[in-house]
Amino acid sequence: MHSNLRFQFGARLVGLARHWRQLLDRHLVEAGLTDATWAPLTHLSRAGGWLHQKDLALRAGLDASSLVRLLDILERQALVRRQTDPADRRAKQIQLTDLGRARVAEIDAILGPIEERLLQDLDERALDELSGWFAKIEARIAADDHKTKAVD
Could you give the CA distance from residue 78 to residue 115 in angstroms, rounded to a whole number? Predict the structure, then answer.
């Protein structure tokens, strides 16, 4: 039997993530940034270099075809560049351009104060501990996804 807290945790986490994203989107739209473009740009920035297209799709929570259309837009805006992976001709790699990095700096300037306010009661130790728990949950989800795909 699950405790009431365990039973409610997933729903609360999903709700929190949705509300968090809506708040950030609202502020970014006011600055002329669309919901579809800012998240992949920030994921590319955090990667720090070339990132495989499939890894970007996973990080951004997008399906492959949606990401390809989005990358076409971002490439036309000169925010990203794509190339074939020299080690695997079937795979594509994506990287921010200088203009893309400047755009991420704009995004961070908007999001930084908002996230600071939202997390103001959590010190670095608490955030580190929460991040560790999230990583454990993410690993279990990935393991479950791997099992599911192996059965398919």
Answer: 28
The model carries a pTM of: 0.78
**Sign of the dihedral defined by the CA atoms of residues 117, 131, 17, 104, in that order:** positive
pLDDT along the chain (152 residues), means of 10: 80 93 90 81 92 89 88 94 90 94 94 95 96 92 77 61
CA distance 8 to 140: 18
b/e map of 12-38 (b: 16 or more CB within 10 Å)? eeeeeeeeeeeebbeebeeeebeebbb
